Amino acid sequence: QKEVEQNSGPLSVPEGAIASLNCTYSDRGSQSFFWYRQYSGKSPELIMFIYSNGDKEDGRFTAQLNKASQYVSLLIRDSQPSDSATYLCAYPNYGGSQGNLIFGKGTKLSVKP
Amino acid sequence: GAVVSQHPSRVICKSGTSVKIECRSLDFQATTMFWYRQFPKKSLMLMATSNEGSKATYEQGVEKDKFLINHASLTLSTLTVTSAHPEDSSFYICSARDLVAGTYNEQFFGPGTRLTVL
Questions:
Q1: B29-82 pLDDT tens trace
Q2: Least CB-packed of A46, A47, A96, B54 within 10 Å?
Q3: Which stretches of chain A sit within 8 Å of chain B by CB?
Q4: Nearest CA to B76 among B20, B25, B112?
Q5: Cα–Cα distance between B16 and B18 in angstroms, integer?
Q6: How far apart are CA A82 and CA B38, in angstroms?
């Protein structure tokens, strides 16, 4: 069964610190990975995707992918209280319902001022 | 770009009534849209995959006669919760894939519809 594992948290970091969010996945054939941010009571918002091994940077966010270890992470530099949300890791279910995404349960991040 | 809207954002109804939720891709075409449900403090649960011009594909355990899906065009999918009951109260969210630009299967979510059944 295809799965995505995330630590549910909560992960608490002080303002200005680096927040590190991690995700492992079971499908070795997965090619692309997504990080969504979901504020309480809101729908998920796509913040980054990555499809190559290594790092991908976008502003304060860096996604890291290691396909050999089946591991993907998201680093948030200079964390702000506004980053407090649940972060969902996902990848496409190629054999499933026409490309639906398989989501982890999410990691709740709390950035303390 | 890649904006998905949902209407209504919030609905309160009496038990036994039917509620229709619309999902629109505003600036792109989506042959495939997805409907999710999320209970408080729980993870997203995929309910069904909506395909333009054909029948929806429902996930195991989701009643297709209870949750009617119609994908009438490349920009519109609707979810109708028929004979709603209090246990159907939840946050319903749709997402869509960009047919042209969605090379990596990324999905964009609508803002969600909060349904409360009294």
A1: 888 899 999 998 888 999 999 888 888 999 999 999 999 999 888 899 999 999
A2: B54
A3: 31-32, 34, 36, 41-46, 49, 51, 88, 92, 97-101, 103-106
A4: B25
A5: 7
A6: 22
- Spatial neighbors of A29 by CB under 8 A, at least 6 apart, are A94
Rounded-to-integer distance, Cα B49 and Cα B68, Å = 11
Tens of pLDDT along A42-66?
A: 999 999 999 889 999 999 999 999 9
* CB of A6 closer than 8 Å to CB of A103: no
Instruction: Tell me the two tokens of residue B16.
Output: 């036994």
Nearest to B112 among A43, A49, A101 (CB): A43
B18-40 per-residue burial string, b: 16 or more CB within 10 A, e: under 16: ebebbbbbeebebebbbbbbbee
Task: Kindly tell me the burial class for residue A3, based on how many C-beta atoms sit within 10 Å of its own C-beta (0-12, 13-18, 19 or more).
Answer: exposed
